C-alpha cells in the first residue's frame, strides 16, 4: 500500500537577501514594485514621495521585516538621520508638548529623535552629550542656556546645528527658540501688584530657569517698595507633594502671604491642596499663581491662574531651524522670542 505524501506548505514570496539571510532594500523594492531609490526615499525623505507609494513601500517593509540600515545610508550621505534632544525631565508634562511637536516635525522629514534626560544638573547634560555626539547626530536640541564649559566646547567642535530652547539670550551657542524667564518674573510682579496684593511669597523649584523667574519677580515687585518676600525652595522636578510641603513650610515659618507665586502648575496644585487642608480660602485669603498652563490648570478648584507657554510652537520652530541648517540654508532669525501670556483665572 502506497503511503500518502504530506501536503507541502504554500510558498511565501521569495527574497534574495545576503548570505546572512537578512532582507535587503532591493527585496523590498521588488515586492513593492518600485525602484530601490524609491524605497530609500520613503525611508529617508518620505515627504518627497507620494502617499500612495509610501503606503505600498511600508506594506512591503512590514511583509518582509526589513530593517533599514540608517548607518550605511548616513555614511554615504554624511548624515545619520538622527536628532538628539535633551530635556530635564518627563516627570511632569511641561516639556511634553515641545517634544511631541519636535518629534512629529522631524518624523515628517525622515529623521528620528533620540531623547536624553538630564535631570536639572549641567554636569549630567555634559555626560549625555559625550554619549550622544559619538553617534554623530545631524543636530542637537537643548533645554535652557546653562551648560558647562566642556559641553559648549564639545558642541562647537562637533560643527553641527544646535538649537537651545525654553530660555532667552542674545548669545546662544548657535540658534535659540524660547522666552525670557526674567521677564516672566517682572510681568507677574506687575500682575499681582495691579490686583492689590501686597504680601507676596514664592514657592519655587531649585532649577536655574525657576530661579531666573524668582529673581525677576523680586526685582519687579521691589520697584513698588515691597522687599520682604519670603521664599520656599524645593528640589526639582516639581511634584504635588512638594507643593504642599513648600506652602506648609512658608506658613509654619510665620509667613502670612496674600498671594503665593509657584514656579510650576504642579507646585501650585499642591499649594491649593495644602490651603484647602488648612481651611484657607483661595483666593479670598490666599491667591495662588502657577506657571506652564498644564492641561489640568483650567480644571483645578478654583481654576488656576498661570503663565501660558506655547510649547508646541517652540518644538516646531526649533525643528524648522535645525532642518534649514542641515539642508545648508540660512536661518534669518537665529534667536526667536515666542513670548508668554498671563492667564487670569479664579485662583488669583
UniProtKB/TrEMBL annotation:
<keyword id="KW-0238">DNA-binding</keyword>
<protein>
    <submittedName>
        <fullName>HTH-type transcriptional regulator GntR</fullName>
    </submittedName>
</protein>
<dbReference type="InterPro" id="IPR028082">
    <property type="entry name" value="Peripla_BP_I"/>
</dbReference>
<dbReference type="Pfam" id="PF13377">
    <property type="entry name" value="Peripla_BP_3"/>
</dbReference>
<dbReference type="Pfam" id="PF00356">
    <property type="entry name" value="LacI"/>
</dbReference>
<dbReference type="InterPro" id="IPR046335">
    <property type="entry name" value="LacI/GalR-like_sensor"/>
</dbReference>
<keyword id="KW-0805">Transcription regulation</keyword>
<feature type="domain" description="HTH lacI-type">
    <location>
        <begin position="23"/>
        <end position="77"/>
    </location>
</feature>
<dbReference type="InterPro" id="IPR010982">
    <property type="entry name" value="Lambda_DNA-bd_dom_sf"/>
</dbReference>
<keyword id="KW-0804">Transcription</keyword>
<dbReference type="InterPro" id="IPR000843">
    <property type="entry name" value="HTH_LacI"/>
</dbReference>
